[in-house]
Amino acid sequence: MTTQHLLKEKQVNELAEKIKNSKTLMIVSIKGLPSKQFQEIKKSIRDEAAIKVAKKNILLRAIKSLKKESILELEKHIEDNSAFAFSNTEGYELASLLLKNKTPVFAKAGQEAPDDIEVKEGPTDLMPGPAISELGSLGLQVAVEDGKISIKKTKTVLNKGQIINENAASILQKLHIQPFNIGLIPVAIYDTESEKVYTEIKIDSEETTANLKDAAAKALGFAQKITYFCKETITYFLAKASLQEKSLSNLQPKEETKEEPQKEKEETKEEPEGVVETIQEKAKEIIENVKENVKEVVETIKHPEEETKNEWL
Predict the structure, then answer these.
(1) Which residues partner with 199 through β-bridges?
(2) What are the sequence ranges of the domains in the chain?
(3) pLDDT classification of 226: cutoffs 50, 70, 90
(4) Which residues are bridge partners to 28 per DSSP?
(5) In whole numbers, what is the pLDDT of the chain averaged over residues?
(6) pTM
(7) Separation of alpha carbons 51 and 87, rounded Å
C-alpha cells in the first residue's frame, strides 16, 4: 500500500472515529466561502463544533466504513464543496449557531439575487457626476442635496432569483449594500444517538417566534372559549366572573325599595283578614235567620189547628 493510500486510510479512520464520538454529524456546504471567513467561523465556533474538510470520496468512505444503514442516506448530500461538522450539541441548535455566524458580502456579477434587493430613500456618499446616470439606469429617482446624491424614493432594483449584472453589482457596492451572507450552510444532520437523518434545515428565529406567538394566542383564545382552567386562563375567568357579579348586583333593587314592597305586602295581608271577619259575621246572621225560619216552620207543622185559629182570630 502506497503512502498516499495510507494517508487516505488514516483520514477515513479519523473521520469515522469522530462520528462515533459525537452526538451530531452535520454535512455543511463551504461553497463560495473565502478562506479568511472560513477560518474566522471555525475559530468562533470551536467550543461548540469541529469542522473537518476533506475530498468528497474521503467523506463518503468514512460514512460507509461505519457499516450503518441509517447513515448511508447522507451520501446523496455530500458534494465537492462539503465538509463535516462534529459536535455534542443538538443538531438544530448547531444549525442555528452556524446561521448566526454568517458574514454579509457584496454582490458579484453573474450571481442570483438571494431575495428582493431594495435601495432605500435617503442621502448617499456619492458625488454628482456619472453616478447620477448609473443610478438612473436602475430606475432610481435621485436629486442633489448638500452637494451629494440623494435617493428620493425607495425602490426594488432586483427581484429574487434575478441575475445580477456588472452595472447593478457596481452600484450596490457604491451604495454599501451587501445582499449576500456567506458562511457554513447546514445541509443535513445525522443524530448518532437516534440514528436519524434530518434534511431541509431551515432556521428562522424571527419567523419561528412569530409563529409561536400566533399559536399561543390562538390556543389561549380556544382555552377561554371551552372554559379550560389553567394558570394562563384563570386571570381571565376571575375578571369575567367579577364583571358578571357587578352586572347582577346592578339588576337587584336597592334596600329602600325592598322595604316598600314588604310594607305594601303587610298592608295587603291586613285587608284580606278584615274582609274574612265581615264575611264570617254575615254568615252567622244568615245561619241564625235560617234557624229561626226553620223553627217557625216546624212549629207550624206540629200545631196546624192553632195556626188556623189564630188566623181566624
Answers:
(1) 188
(2) 3-102+183-202, 117-178, 204-268, 279-313
(3) confident
(4) 83, 186
(5) 82
(6) 0.56
(7) 9
pLDDT at 313 over 50: no
CATH fold label, 3-102+183-202: Alpha-Beta Plaits (3.30.70)
State the helix-helix crossing angle for 3-20 and 56-65, rounded to 10 degrees.
Answer: 60
**Superfamily of the domain at 117-178:** Ribosomal protein L10, N-terminal fragment, domain II (3.90.105.20)
Residue 169 has pLDDT above 80, yes or no: yes
pLDDT band at 276 (very low <50, low <70, confident <90, very high): low
